[in-house]
Amino acid sequence: MLIDELLLRPQRCLALASHWQTRRIRNEAGVTENPMMRPTVDELMRRAFDAPRDPTSPEYKAGVRSILNLRVGGIPVPLPYELGTAQADAYFAGQNEGHRIWRKLEEEGEV
Asked: Which of 2, 9, 69, 111 could cysteine-pair with 75, CB 3.0–4.6 Å?
């Protein structure tokens, strides 16, 4: 298919993108996987915080989400708290967990 044809027919582009996202392949171990689908930020947040764990503050969770938004979607989030406050400290601690979550995903080959 020519690029010009895709530009003139955007609905065809959407159909192709949908096909690519739903296509599944089998890896060497016979496990079905989808290389085009990355976990969403919301899915990663559920994995991290729906499991039993010590409670965390909203600022901490915002820090985790900020890093996952950056890694998954390339969306930088400016610091929403004033430096030197407990809220900023919790936010930075959350960012550290966000980095750990992403590194673990990379090691496991999910991203």
From this structure: 69
Separation of alpha carbons 67 and 96, rounded Å: 8
Gap between the Cα atoms of 82 and 88, Å rounded? 6
Q: Which structure tokens are listed for 52?
A: 């039993």
CA 14 to chain centre: 22
Q: What are phi and psi of 25, to 5 degrees?
A: -130, 165
Q: Which amino acid is at 34?
A: N
**pLDDT tens column, 47-105:** 999 989 999 999 999 999 999 999 999 999 999 999 999 999 999 999 999 999 999 99
- Whether the full predicted model's pTM is greater than 0.70, yes or no, is no
Average pLDDT, integer, range 16-33: 46
Q: What token pair was written down for 71?
A: 């890694």
- At 79, is the secondary structure helix, strand, or coil? coil
Report yes or no: 78 and 66 within 8 Å, Cβ to Cβ.
no
